[in-house]
Structures are given as C-alpha cells and as structure tokens.
Amino acid sequence: MNELLSHGYIALFIIIAFGMIIGRIKIFGFSFDISAVIFVALLLGHFGMIVPEDFMKFGLLLFIFTIGIQAGPGFFEAFRKYGRSLILTTLLSLISAAGVFIALSKFFGLKPDIAIGVFNGALTSTPGLAAAIESTGSPQAAVGYGIAYSFGVIGVIISINIIPALFKVNLKNEEENYKKSLREDNPELQGVNLSVENPNMNNKSIAESRIAEMANVVLSKIMHKGKVRPASGKEKLYNGDVIRVIGSKEAIEQAKILVGNEYPDEMPRSKEIVTEWVLVTNKDIVNKKYSEINLNRNYNTTVLKIKRSGIEIIPNASSIFRFGDRLQITGGKNGVMAAKKILGNDTKKLSHTDFLPIALGILIGIVLGKINIPIGSFSINLGMTGGTLAAGILLSRLGKTGPVIWSMSGSANQLLRELGLLLFMASVGTQAGAHFVEAIRSNGIELIISSIIIATVPVIIGAAVGKYIFKMNFLSLLGVITGAMTSTPGLAVVNSKSECNAAPIAYATVYPVALVFVIIASQILPKLL
After folding, report:
1. Cα(388)–Cα(358) distance, integer angstroms
2. Among 515, 489, 516, 442, which Cα is nearest to 143's?
3. DSSP state, 503?
4. Which of 452, 465, 476 is nearest to 93 (CA)?
5. What is the pLDDT of residue 113?
6. Residues 185/214, Cβ–Cβ less than 8 Å
7. pLDDT at 310
8. Which of 182, 392, 458, 482 could form a disulfide with 490 if both were Cys (CB 3.0 to 4.6 A apart)?
C-alpha cells in the first residue's frame, strides 16, 4: 500500500477526489468548493504524500493561460473604462500590505532577510521572492517565504469566502448587476418597420441613402407595392415603401428622423426571404472586416446581429469576424446557403479543442516571462506566470495568426482551467505541507501571525475601498483583490462562485501592476527595516 501511495500520480488523484468531496460539504450554507483541494494536500503532504513539482508548473501554466484567453477579449475595454479605479484599489491594497509588513517586522523584531520572505509568501509572489533574495543576498528569505506561503494561500481563500458575508453582499445579485451593465453598454437590439416618408430618400438606393451608417442600424427587408424583398444595397427606396430596421432603441429613434414614422402593421411573410443564425467557424475569414467579405453585395444577404460572449452587437462595415461568433443573417434562400458556406457554420469545429494554439501560446508566455525590463538600476521580468497571462491576453485579442486561431470554446476553457488549477493546488499543497509543522516549530508564532495579518488585512482594505469609494461590482472587486494578492487559488474560489467573466477580467487587468509593485517593494522594503 505504501508503495502504491508513493507514486505521485496516485497521490494526485487521491487529493483531488477527497478535496472535491470535502469541498461540496456545506455548513450553514458555506463551502470551500474547489479550494478544499489545497487543504487536503497540506494535510497529506504533512504525512509524506508528495505530488511532483512538475504537476504544479504544468497546472499553473494551463490555468493562467486559459484565464488570459478568457479575459483577453474584455481586458482592454475594462482597462479603458475602469482602469483607474481597478489600479488604485490594487495599489491601496498593496500599500496597506507593505505598511502592515513594516509595522509587524519592527514590532516582532524580525530580521530583514527573513521578513521580506514572509512578505512575499503572504502575497504568494515567487517573482517577488527572487527579487528579495537578489536584494538581500540571503537565502533566509526563502525560509520566511516557505512559512508564509501556506498561510498566504489559506488566508486569501478564507477571506474571499468570508468577505461577501462580511460586507453583506449577495454574489448572485452582483452577477446579475454585472450582466445588466454589459447590456447597458451593448443595448438590446429590436426591430421595427418604418414608412419611407422623407422626400430626400425617394428614388435613392439603400446604399446611397446611408441610413445604416447615419443611424447605426441594419436594414433587413423592404416592402414595395406589397412585395417583400431582401434589403440589398442596390434596392431603391420610394415614398410609401416600408423598410425593416434593427438596432438599439436610440438608433431606431434616429432612423425614424431619417426615414419616417413607424409602420403600424406587420410585413407579409415572403417565401423568398429566410433568416437564420449561423456560426463563424471558417478560419479563412477570421479577423477579416465585414466590408472585405461583403455578404450584402456578393450574396444579397444581410448580417442583422452579432452574438458574441452572450452579448448582441449591431454589425457595420468595420466589424470583424471572430471565431465562434453567431450571426443572424437574412436574405434569399440561395444567398443564405452560400453565405453559410463562407461563414463555416460547423458546430463540430466549434466544440473541437485544438491543442496547438494552447501549446504555442504557453511557450510564447514562458519566453515573454524571461525578458528583462530595465527599471532604474535594476531590471525585472514578468516571470513564468506573468508572461503566460500576458500571452493569453494578447493572443486572444489578436484572434488569429496565419492558420492558428487563438481561442477556444467556453466549455473547453472551463475544463482546462479547472484541470490546471487542481494540478497546481494538489502539488503546491503537498510541497508546503511537507515542511509546514517543522517550519512552525523552528521559527515561532511571530512569523505565522505576521503571515496571516499580511495576507488578510489588504483583502479587507481592498474590499472596503472598492465597495465604498469606487462602488465597484463585488465580483470584479474580488478579481481585483486576488490579482493584487497574486493569488491563483483565490481567483479559483471566485470563479467557482460565478459563471461570468467579471473576476477573471479584473484579475488580468491588475495582475501585472501587482507583480511589478511586489518586485520593486521586495528590493526597497528590507532597507526600511
């Protein structure tokens, strides 16, 4: 039996299985979910069970890359709209961590070299530890890191589970509010029939009238003398005609000013016109503008709506085809059939997971992480984690390079993300658990207390600042906090509580800021003690 348990892969599955079982147990409505795996790993690691470190690195890379791919499409928009509040919350959290660290170090009389290790362990920052060892020239930083790391992981996980109740926040309501804000940024689309009454539109083609561009609407069909046809650009408008326009409420009001009043009746159905939802799965058109393919001119079909990440978007000539988009198209039967072939519409391709972009993306991330960035008299790098996250964000934004599509389906992303996280937590837990009790015995209670306080105080301060000062959505705020604490397990806890992208996007937005701050702080703080 002992020989069987000595195999790392057997230990891995034992830890994951028991961790998932314990994580599903609810006490007064509270459960640890997936984060229970790390507690099982700590316990079994103490009793000699070890999951090899390679599993930890593989799991971490897989988890962080899929987070980058998931967060990438919304990252730059979030940074543009909320960057100031996200970054200020992050910096205030980290400044509070540094202030607590200095106060505790002086109160307990901790040596600078071991104390700075505690600081990085509580923030679970390996790049920061490397900077601390380089700055102090002492391996003792690794001792402090080893003691504090476990408490840093546990402290953030417990804090993330507790603070929603502490601040009296319902996360399901926050998820609905987040989705509502997305809908406000991308208003729900509606369709109305308008009578052509503007004399300036009379005897002009739809292309010449420029209704779509001026009102930001899409024209789907036109009725002339009772006959309904697809609204292609060459079709002419005459006073008394009726056109079907699709857009936001505000856009439709603008279209009424340009065209005329709302037509009270429905248009008769036409057997010539079909409307279907079609998937974009043809790699050859990904990243191309709609104007390049020009479905309206080439196939007499019109794209009415784009559905991307659950949001409906009104298309225009500069819109870009993204792999996995769902397009509502309308036109003649033959034209729609031809358009479907161009777009792909292959559900098998959408559900298929291509491992080539995953492997290439992670390799690019590792290389990015090794690039040194000079800052004053020293240089920093993003490290393996930061480089992989940056690669995921940038590549998902890029969308396509040659034949390689930098995306994956939501279900594939979720599976690989959770797998990576389980591998990471099982391995890091056993590594820490093996020296957990010994470190406590040899280094005393002061380091433990310091670790717990440094790991929890910034979380509470960050939550208070984000909620009461910046009025931030609490799911986004939890993403900011876990990003500020560079806590991968903490983000996993938030992910298990919500299906929306609020936390991953916020995490990805602030993580690079936190990484740079901790690295610089690790070189400055020892000199202040």
Report:
1. 11
2. 442
3. H
4. 465
5. 82
6. no
7. 65
8. 482
All domains of the chain in start order, with CATH: 51-182+353-528 (no CATH), 185-349 (3.30.70.1450)
Nearest to 320 by CA among 288, 365, 295, 342: 288
Asked if 129 contacts 145 with a C-beta cutoff of 8 angstroms, the reply is yes
Do 280 and 327 touch, CB atoms closer than 8 A?
yes
- Reading the block at residue 140, the tokens are 């003792």
Which tens digit of pLDDT belongs to each residue from 174-229? 988 888 887 776 677 888 999 999 998 888 988 888 898 898 888 888 999 888 88
Written as six digits, the tokens of 62 are 């897989």
Amino acid 32: pLDDT:
66
- Other C-beta atoms closer than 10 Å to the C-beta of 440 total 15
DSSP string for 206-253: HHHHTHHHHHT-EEEEEEETTEEEE--TTPEE-TT-EEEEEE-HHHHH
Structure tokens at 172: 């399901």
Rounded-to-integer distance, Cα 228 and Cα 65, Å? 50
* pTM greater than the 0.85 cutoff: no
Query: In which residue are the tokens 């079709």 written?
Result: 235
Q: Report which of residues 185 and 286 the model is more confident about.
A: 286
